[in-house]
Design a protein that fits this description.
By secondary structure, the chain is an alpha/beta fold. It has 13 helices and 13 strands. It has an eight-stranded parallel sheet with strand order 5-4-3-10-9-8-7-6. The longest helix has 18 residues.
């Protein structure tokens, strides 16, 4: 088995547990056949906070054949129902001559650029003519082991989307990539429905895949909102891929399950908020929380007392603020004697009690400085 790393690295950016979530704007065919629109989408992806803009590298002839046979017609209910595969891919493809130019524009814009190749000729083109820093294997191609081996031979990071694949097929793809020389493999949990329903997503698979394959795992999200992606980040997703379009109203093969620029920006902001909120396990109080310790209950003397007087429910109560002994000590205090005169409104501590366990530091009122020094 080829040595692997617990993260992948694209243009010097480490992607995996402990690193910021890598957000990919899948532009795909949302350029609607316009180079200028493709350029605008790259720039909008950057403005929205995406880390990468991704395209797809195929032609109608490299992905299928021109045939009117029934096998080539999309007959099931979907966004593409009634379409012929060849015609659909002819409309949706990104012209190859655009791609070196788009990569240069992405570099100038300050955003990563890579693609999904759909056959060996696309890999050769992306290596020789474009120079992408990583590859994405689309869900429908995860069973194309020869294509995976071809990509792995480049030595570049590979992101495998798992839509339609069962666990055995995912394992076969990962094994093929690693045995063919790819040391940096990442997986994307994906539901290959367009659009997908949240109930179909099963994002609890993300931590399971990470444990099973010892690699970064993310989400390729075709739901209509951003909630599922944010949930995935909370579960450990290291990558979030989402389709980006200028406007769903303008249409296009992928528009119906894509986010518009403002929505994409909200998604990225949400991702950053969630990853900040996740943090690491830690039970220290924040500085802001420390200010609110006073709102805890504690034991207070609530009636003037003379030295030697007995503590009773009438002169000691558990009330706010939290400057006295913890409420749990009330049974121990009741029946004891006051060590001196005590004014109403005095927080109770062991020095005010005759024969109290003053040597037990754990029973003293909260001292935040001492507590923080001890951590």
């Amino acid at each position: 088995m080829t040595d692997t790393t617990p993260f992948i690295e694209i243009n010097g950016r480490k992607i995996g547990p402990g690193f910021p979530v890598y957000v990919v704007a899948e532009i795909s065919c949302n350029h609607n056949g316009s180079f200028d629109r493709a350029v605008e989408l790259i720039r909008l992806a950057k403005e929205a906070g995406a880390d990468a803009a991704k395209f797809q590298t195929y032609t109608a002839d490299t992905i299928t054949i021109d045939s009117e046979e029934q096998w080539f017609q999309i007959r099931h209910e979907s966004l593409w129902e009634g379409r012929n595969l060849y015609d659909l891919y002819r409309e949706a493809h990104t012209p190859w001559e655009w791609q070196p130019k788009l990569k240069k524009i992405a570099q100038e814009t300050g955003i990563d650029f890579f693609c999904s190749p759909f056959d060996p000729t696309a890999v050769d083109f992306l290596e020789k003519e474009v120079g992408v820093p990583a590859y994405k294997v689309a869900s429908f191609e995860i069973v194309d082991i020869l294509l995976i081996q071809k990509i792995a031979a480049t030595g570049k990071p590979m992101i495998l989307s798992t839509g339609l694949a069962n666990f055995r097929e995912i394992a076969e793809a990962v094994q093929a990539a690693r045995q063919a020389g790819c040391r940096q493999v990442a997986l994307l949990k994906c539901t290959s429905n367009y659009p997908a329903k949240p109930s179909e997503m099963k994002i609890s698979s993300i931590p399971h895949l990470a444990r099973a394959f010892h690699c970064p795992v993310g989400l390729s999200d075709h739901t209509l909102g951003s909630e599922v992606a944010l949930g995935a980040v909370a579960l450990g997703a290291c990558i979030v891929e989402k389709h980006l379009t200028l406007s769903r109203k303008e249409g296009g093969p992928d528009a119906g399950f894509s986010l518009e620029p403002g929505e994409f920006a909200d998604l990225v902001q949400g991702v950053r908020t969630v990853e900040q909120a996740i943090g690491t396990p830690d039970y220290k109080l924040t500085l802001e929380e420390e200010k609110n310790l006073m709102f805890r209950r504690s034991l207070f003397v609530v009636a003037n007392m003379k030295a030697g007087e007995t503590f009773t429910p009438q002169n000691v109560r558990s009330i706010r603020p939290g400057h006295g002994l913890a409420p749990k000590h009330l049974p121990l205090v009741l029946g004891k004697k006051a060590a001196r005169n005590i004014r109403r409104g005095t927080p109770l501590d062991w020095t005010l009690i005759v024969s109290s366990p003053v040597d037990d530091k754990n029973d003293e009122p909260i001292d935040r400085k001492r507590e923080l020094d001890a951590v």
